[in-house]
Design a protein that fits this description.
2 domains, binds zinc ion, mainly alpha
Length: 253
């Protein structure tokens, strides 16, 4: 029952996260205008805004102009619902679930806007970092709070160094600024050694996708943020927040 409540909350929040992720990079307000059809601009009624269900009832079409609505909207909502439920299953109904829910929420916005626009909004990372830091201070005390900032800065610097080396080797921008700032956010929750694991695993997962993109589109620009974010979410849900690469290899072998 509680799991279902988390799931429904996830669906509703997922719907909101999409609005944030799709409007912020375009410099639009999150509140105004209210949700509308992209094609005919008709304002959506409350019953057209029920996550997933409205999509199914309307058979994926706008009620007014019958324009096809992308399947990705209900998918992002479902993804958020599933991740919220998993947070509950892993961390239980306690204060321990607050930081994971915040972390996952911010990363869903990051994933959507990086896929759609190849942009990771500073506003989202700043708001997310402030939220996580306040929660850490209240829930875990001053020491954890300072440690989170320390690892955040350390992860940021480490990623910056990798970008610097990458740019030098490939003679082009190897990593986006958003990816580097994302690591400050990761550092608030993860140990630096786990941040390294995230880079390795995300590169490993992204590689086949990058190769396919290169062959099909003849360019090699792949948003790395979603891969980093998904890897971070998986490690968080496995409670691997301070696992090293060596630990992981030992664990798997
Ligand atoms: Zn329409």
């Amino acid at each position: 029952m509680v799991c279902l409540i988390f799931f429904i909350f996830g669906l509703v929040f997922g719907s909101f996260f999409q609005v944030v992720a799709l409007r912020l990079p375009e410099g639009k307000s999150i509140i105004n205008p209210p949700s509308h059809c992209e094609k005919c601009n008709k304002k959506l009624k409350w019953y057209e805004l029920i996550p997933v269900i409205s999509y199914l009832i309307q058979l994926g079409k706008c009620r007014n102009c019958k324009t096809h609505i992308s399947i990705k909207y209900p998918i992002y909502e479902l993804l958020t619902g599933i991740l919220f439920s998993l947070c509950y299953i892993v961390f239980g109904l306690s204060v321990n679930v607050i930081i994971p829910i915040t972390f996952v929420s911010i990363l869903i916005i990051v994933i959507i806007s990086d896929i759609e626009y190849m942009i990771i909004s500073d506003e989202v990372l700043i708001c997310g970092s402030i939220l996580i830091l306040i929660e850490t201070l209240i829930l875990n005390g001053v020491f954890s709070f300072l440690l989170a900032i320390f690892y955040g800065v350390l992860c940021f610097c480490f990623m910056y160094l990798i970008k610097w080396i990458g740019d030098f080797i490939f003679k082009t921008e190897s990593l986006g600024g958003g990816d580097i700032k994302l690591f400050f956010f990761f550092g608030l929750v993860f140990h630096i050694k786990t941040a390294i694991v995230i880079i390795f695993l995300a590169s490993f997962i992204a590689l086949p996708y990058a190769i396919i993109t290169m062959i099909r589109k003849k360019d090699n620009i792949v948003p790395f943020g979603p891969f980093l974010s998904i890897t971070a979410i998986i490690l968080l849900l496995l409670k691997f927040t301070s696992v090293s690469l060596l630990d992981l290899i030992n664990y798997l072998v």
